[in-house]
Amino acid sequence: MFRQLLLELVDAVYPPACFLCGAPAADWACDAHRIPARLLGPRCGRCVAPLPAALPDGYACARCRRRPPGFERVLALADYGRESAAREWLLAFKHGGRRDLARPLGAALARRCLEVGVEADLLVPVPLHPWRRLARGYDQARALAQRLAEDLDVRVEPALARTRATLEQGAPSSPSRAANVRSAFACDPAARRHLRGRAVWLVDDVLTSGATASECAHVLKRAGAQAVGVLCVARATRRRALPDGPQSTTLTP
């Protein structure tokens, strides 16, 4: 009761405001910057890429049928191309120096995980190369994973490291996304004992082609992980999202 009264007093003195723009907000985001809690439209059951309207939700997309990624499932809150609010949050978080945004973004993702019953033994952030982390000042995926771990009561295991610098994915001068990240990650030998037989979820801010997450998943499985999923704030694709539909989030070996 005392805690509730204290929170009400704090809200009266400092009215809740949007973390991103500072406008009055009932929660962590104002109406203009509220991120959806789920993806829209029929989605691939593995990588959550949008599917043609004629296909059922959960059907495997052509890319996943042709070359299955290393991960089994993806949970994302928003479509990066469709939701301008998601883009503003992630650009500020990743390139705008707003490390503090890990708190509301992680809380929103954790809330969705609890709603759908995500079960995880470990969270593993997708790592930045040390030079890029130095330039940015922080590793956004690790900051997001740490916030998620608090709400989900799950351990963060920084099991992966970049073995070489890579070009920005999709840059004009870069090779294909898969070739760009091939052999670019390694597992910390000390972390292997924590990975064996575990259900692991990779954590990143955005999933685009899935090449980076797939490469990381392959490394984790070679180190003993039983199954690997991906938790991210947004899924970026070039295809338009379609009408609403549920998405599967069960992580199976």
Description of the molecule:
There is one protein chain. With 253 residues, the protein is an alpha/beta fold. The chain folds into 2 domains: 1-34, no CATH class; 35-235, Rossmann fold (3-Layer(aba) Sandwich), CATH 3.40.50. It contains 9 helices and 7 strands. The chain has helices at 2-13, 62-66, 84-95, 102-116, 130-136, 140-152, 177-181, 192-195, 211-222; strands spanning 73-79, 122-125, 155-156, 160-162, 185-187, 199-207, 227-235. The protein has a 5-stranded parallel sheet with strand order 1-7-6-2-3. A two-stranded antiparallel ribbon has the order 4-5. Helix 4 (102-116) packs across helix 6. The protein starts with a helix and ends in an 18-residue tail after the last strand.
Write the layout of secondary structure elements.
Blueprint: H1 2-13, H2 62-66, E1 73-79, H3 84-95, H4 102-116, E2 122-125, H5 130-136, H6 140-152, E3 155-156, E4 160-162, H7 177-181, E5 185-187, H8 192-195, E6 199-207, H9 211-222, E7 227-235
Helix pairs in contact: 4-6
Count up the domains. 2
CATH architecture type of the largest domain: 3-Layer(aba) Sandwich
Amino-to-carboxy terminus distance: 45 Å
Q: Kindly report the average pLDDT value.
A: 84
- Largest β-sheet summary: 5 strands, parallel
The H/E string reads HHEHHEHHEEHEHEHE
Summarize the structure.
Helix content is 34%, strand content 15%.
Pick out its properties.
253 residues, Rossmann fold, 2 domains, 7 strands, globular, disordered C terminus
